Amino acid sequence: MWLYFVVLVGLYYLLRWYRERQVVSHLQDKYVFITGCDRGFGNLLARQLDMRGLRVLAACLTEKGAEQLRNKASERLETVILDITNTESIAAATQWVKERVGDRGLWGLVNNAGVYQPMAYLEWQKFDDCMNILNVNLLGLVQVTLSMLPLVRRAKGRIVNVSSMLGRIAACGGFYSMSKFGVEGFSDTLRREVKGFGVKVSIITPGSFKTEMTNLQLSLDRLEQTWKEIPMHIKESYGKQLFDFHYKMVKKGLSNCSSDLNLVTDCMEHAVTSAHPRTRYVAGWDAQFIFIPLSYWPTSLADYILTSHMPKPAEAT
Questions:
Q1: Strand spans (E) along 234-317
Q2: What is the pLDDT of residues 234-268, one digit of tens each?
Q3: Within 13 Å of residue 59, how many CA atoms lie on the same side as its CB?
Q4: What's the CA gap between 1 and 82, in Å, rounded?
Q5: 285 forms bridges with which residues in the sheet?
Q6: What is the pLDDT of residues 92-106, one digit of tens each?
Q7: What value, to the nearest 5°, has the Cα angle with vertex 66 and ends 64 and 70?
Q8: Mind giving me the DSSP string for 104-118?
Q9: pTM of the prediction?
Q10: Residues of the chain under the 70 pLDDT cut
Q11: CA distances from residue 123 to 12, 175, 219, 303 in whole angstroms, order as listed
Q12: Do 164 and 115 form a contact (C-beta atoms < 8 A)?
C-alpha cells in the first residue's frame, strides 16, 4: 500500500515538473509591466526578463533609478516614472502602457513596489506610518491592478503580486503584515474572478532578503527614532528592557537576511513565462521551513512559539 502511495506522489511531482517546464511561445512579442524597479527585486527582475527577450516596461519612483536601470539593460527596456500612491500618476502610466502594447494587450503585470518601515510595535508608531504602508503595499497595488486589468485581459496574461511570509502569519511588523494579508485576500478574490478571461494570478511569498527595504542601519535608526518620539506613558508601559530586546531581535533578524535575490526573481520569472504558473510561490528557507508551516499550526501553539522568549512589558511585571 505504501509503495503505491509513494509511486502516486512521485508521478504527481514528475507531472508537475514537466508541466512547469513548458514555456509560453513568442516571449519576444510580450510586454511586462513591473512596479518598484529603482532597486531590489523589481530592478533585478526587469533586467532578468529583458535578458529573456521580453519587452519590459519598468516603473520607477525616481528618474535617477530609471536612468540607472536603462544603463544596465537593452534598448528594448523602457521606463516610466510612477508613484503608486497617486491616482493621476497611475492613470498616466496606464495610458503610457496602452500606447505601447496596442491591440496585443499587456501580457504580464508584476506588482512589486513596497515599503517596510519602521519595524516597531503597533502602539509605538504613528497613524501616518500605517497609512503610508497601506497606501503603497495594498491600496496602490489594488489601484494599479484594476487600472491595468483591461490590458491584461486583452492579452489573457498574468498578474503577479508580491506578498510576504508576514502576509501568512503576523509574527512582527503589524502594519506591514496587515497590508500583506490584504494582498493575499485581494489576489485570491481576483484570481477567481478573472479565471474565466484566461488571466492567471500568482502570489510571490518571499522570506527575509537583503534589499533597501531591509537595510540594517536604516531600519535600526528608524526604530530608535520611533522610540524617542512616542509619549512617555507608552514608554513607561512597555519599558526600556522590552525595547532593548526588540532592538536586538530586529538587528539579529535583518543581519541574517538572504542576499540571493534570484530566489525571488526566479519565482517571478516563472510566473510570467511558464505555460502553467503556480498559484503561490514561496522563496527563502525561513519562509519555506519556519513561517509558512507555522501558519498552519494551532494559534495557541504559534503564539507560544513566537512570544514565549519575549520579556514582559514593564507594567506587567
A1: 280-283
A2: 999 999 999 999 999 999 999 999 999 999 999 99
A3: 25
A4: 57
A5: none
A6: 999 999 999 999 999
A7: 120
A8: G--SEEEE-------
A9: 0.93
A10: 317
A11: 48, 11, 18, 19
A12: no
